[in-house]
Amino acid sequence: MKALRLKSWKSQPILEDVAVPEPGPDEVVIQVGAAGACHSDLHLMHDFDAGALPWGPPFTLGHENAGWVHATGAGVRGLDRGAPVAVVGAWGCGTCAHCRDGLETYCERPDAAPVPGGGGGLGLDGGMAEYLLVPAARHLVPLPDGLDPVQAAPLTDAGLTPYHAVRRSASKLGPTATAVVIGVGGLGHLAVQVLRATSGARVVAVDLREGARDLAMQCGADLALAPGPDLVDEIRAFTGNVGADVVIDCVGSDETLATAAASARQLGDITIVGIAGGTLPLSFFALPYEASVQTTYWGNRRELVEVLDLAARGLLKAESTLYTLDDAAQAYRDLAHGTVTGRAVVVPTDSYQP
Ligand SMILES: [Zn+2]
Ligand SMILES: [Zn+2]
Questions:
Q1: How far does the centroid of ligand 2 lie from the alpha carbon of residue 115, in Å?
Q2: Distance between CA atoms of 310 and 91, rounded to whole angstroms?
Q3: Which residues are 204's β-sheet partners?
Q4: How far apart are CA 212 and CA 18, in angstroms?
Q5: Does residue 102 carry a pLDDT above 90?
Q6: How many CB atoms lie within 10 A of CB 145?
Q7: Helix (H) or strand (E) holding 211
Q8: Ligand that comes closest to the CA of residue 93
Q9: Residues at Cβ < 5 Å from ligand 1 ion
Q10: Residues 225-238, mean pLDDT to the nearest whole number
Q11: Residue 317: DSSP 8-state
């Protein structure tokens, strides 16, 4: 089968032929219906040296996957061949306290996981291929009626990550609250929709691209702003000069974090989701009183079930630009150039072929 593989750090991925995986005990092979191209994959291609992470190339890219159950290993029950499924992307040990809660992103026994701190497309072979080996049946969530793999795949990261961040701040997102989403790309346009679907808060979106601001408004934002010298004043004016209750920063640069800190309300939340690597100076006077700053990473299995349910009811929709597997490398080039609207999604096969 064909697979888009990262062969070494600081290189471009290559499409090559590899063997179709066979499931061992408790493992499942899915035929990949769709795999999202994530901005974090660009960091994998450009930013890491050997030893920086506990895992490394070669592996097949794609950590945002959905498809159909194709083959099950010994001991797997309850999964019918051809059933549409989404893949929970972080693969932990399965037995520590966090894994038992479904929060395998924060596995506390990484030494006992299939790969420490990673998953499919993150150290192990991912979904930019015709078939994907999933190391345990618990990582699969059935797709609700009305949702196909092309719609579901981007929701497993670009939807789930902002969902986790928004739900974490649910108590601060009442009807009189204002939430700010900085960066309206793959994650940000879904963050706006998650806020709309799960809270009564007003939503302000920030992006330097006009097309992204238009997308934010289509997704339900109340106001879309461009960065500039007046940005913080504009956000604060919209909140009656008290500041934003929750700021979700889907970029995470020095500049966006400074905007987040200057825009937040006392007692507010600043949640760093984007991995641009910026820093936010912290001192007694640097932030509004009792403002909390946190990072979040991905989300848990129960939350993915909720995200898929919202999507099946039409309340969340990933805006996607589709590519064939042959064009997967182009998807990443377009992502790097900022020309993708919403999420770039690679479609290796468009229907289940037994
Ligand atoms: Zn990702
Ligand atoms: Zn664990």
A1: 11
A2: 24
A3: 180, 223
A4: 37
A5: no
A6: 7
A7: helix 210-218
A8: 2
A9: 38, 40, 157
A10: 98
A11: -
